[in-house]
Design goal:
Elements lengths: L1 H7 L5 H20 L7 H25 L5 H19 L10
Helix pairs in contact: 1-2, 2-3, 2-4, 3-4
Length: 99
């Protein structure tokens, strides 16, 4: 979510690149891999990184094919969709306890 705030504020510092790289490397993959249970931690992190980069490549390819290449908008869109998927899947948001 910090990435979206930095993008919306039109921040051009070096911080946005590091925060952006970290967030787009983890959040989309975590949204896709988190429902899978009983994974070893190294396997889970390998899948998170792989799925994050794969999803970004698919989004970038679709944007290039449709001639709508706007990297900041695409990153914000991917981050909002991924964050929304994680929040919607959270049991506390749905009114159930984690027990």
């Amino acid at each position: 979510m910090l990435e979206v705030i930095l993008l919306a504020s039109d921040n051009h510092s070096v911080v946005i690149y590091y925060v952006g790289l970290l967030s787009v490397s983890v959040v989309p993959g975590w949204a896709l891999v988190s429902p899978v249970r009983h994974l070893d931690p190294p396997l889970r992190w390998a899948l998170v990184l792989t799925m994050s980069w794969a999803s970004l490549l698919v989004v970038a390819q679709v944007a290039l094919t449709l001639h709508h290449w706007h990297p900041r908008l695409l990153v914000a869109l991917v981050m909002l969709l991924s964050s929304g998927a994680l929040v919607a899947r959270d049991p506390l948001v749905r009114g159930r306890s984690r027990a």
